[in-house]
Amino acid sequence: MWQGTVVLRPGRLIYAGRLGVAHSHRHAAVQLVLATTEPVRLRDESGAAWQGHAAVIPSGAVHEMAGACAGLIAWIDADGLFGQALTRRVRCTGLPLDSVTAWAAAAQPLLDDGIRAAALAGGTPSTVIDQVLGTLAEASPLAEKPLHPALQRAVALLPTLLDHSVHLGQLAGAAGISASRLGHLFSDELGLPFRAHVRWARLQRAIDHARRGVTLTEAAHAAGFADSAHLTRVCHEMFGLPPSLLARAVDWH
Question: Where is the signal peptide (predicted)?
């Protein structure tokens, strides 16, 4: 049974707690799996099974998971800088991208570098995942410097526009910058393309509303989704989990 805590940041959702069963599915995000107690069990589309403590599953790869253990899972936007870097790491194994052996081989540095031990030692989920990304992606975290003023204005304005379609040109005009320049700033300073950032903002708003006890339809409309089916489809595509589970079965930080 899924029961734990979640941190949602632009481009990543981090879950820590009991890992449950996830039947055969694929999703749009790159998935990091780190079991901190018993091994997690994974199966790929061919039926090949594996159990161990760390795996990197690329976007679009069909898989099943049987948890019954404690651990961390992070869903990383495949279009972002870290998602692309993690996908390259799976490719560098030389094994088929859709094979469970490639997913395990790509995550081997987690075990070699003692990150699992850090998780066992009580590191916060966000801290541990930051370590994971730095190790596996071979990319430094985005520089912690003040955002470009126009990007700051755009990020502040975005939540006020989610009731309807959000266009880069519209947001750029309000922020006082060209659309092309703002698009580059989203990728360069936030590590996510503009459209991906909007998608994550909508998911966060919808789940926030669902947690307050409104219906999924109301939560979907509040975040700019067409209806609850649209919201559910996007959640399944990104995480392989329904929004109802994310809203009720976990604590949010």
Answer: none
Residues 132, 53 contacting (CB under 8 angstroms): no
Among residues 88, 115, 136, the one where a domain terminates is: 136
Q: Identify the domain boundary among 73, 101, 136.
A: 136
For position 208, what pLDDT does the model report? 85
Structural domain of 158: 149-252
Sequence-ordered alpha helix ranges (H) in 107-193: 108-112, 115-120, 125-136, 149-157, 168-175, 179-185
Q: What is the DSSP string of 152-169?
A: HHHHHHGGGGTTS---HH
Enter the pTM of the model: 0.84
Angle at 30 between CA 114 and CA 96, to 5 degrees: 90
Which range has the worst mean pLDDT, 17-31, 151-165, 177-191?
Answer: 17-31
- Judge contact between 74 and 15, C-beta under 8 A: yes
Q: How many independent structural domains does the chain possess?
A: 2
Mean pLDDT on 23-44 = 90
